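From the thread on structure requests for the teaching lab: each student submitted one protein with a one-line request. Submission from student K.M.:

"Model Asp23/Gls24 family envelope stress response protein from Pusillibacter faecalis, tokens only."
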Amino acid sequence: MIQFKSELGEISVSSAVFSNITGMAATNCFGVKGMAYRSMTDGLVHLLRREAMSKGVSITYHDDNSISIELHIVVENGVNLPAVCRSIMNEVRYVVTKNTGVQVRAVDVCVDSMIL
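Reply posted by the TA:
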């Protein structure tokens, strides 16, 4: 959780906020089918529904009030993976910073599956 303090009070931003913003930004990019989640019970990769997108995102907090984001995605067959991942990195960094004011130190994109 990141906290902003001023003379007027304090604002706390939870991981759920960053996860939801990240999931929405990533799934709006071309070639992304959705967020992915690897099940611990069977080891299979599952495509997440829109209401559960945050399961595919991991947020790491740093001492300087910046964050690092790791997200897992499922892509469409035939897309240029480096181009799609670069697009996601830029979009997530921009949207998270714009909506929360928090500096994003790193965005790591893991492509877990490709849908034919």
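TA comment: The CA atoms of residues 37 and 55 lie 6 Å apart. Strands lie at 2-6, 9-13, 32-38, 45-47, 57-61, 67-76, 104-115.
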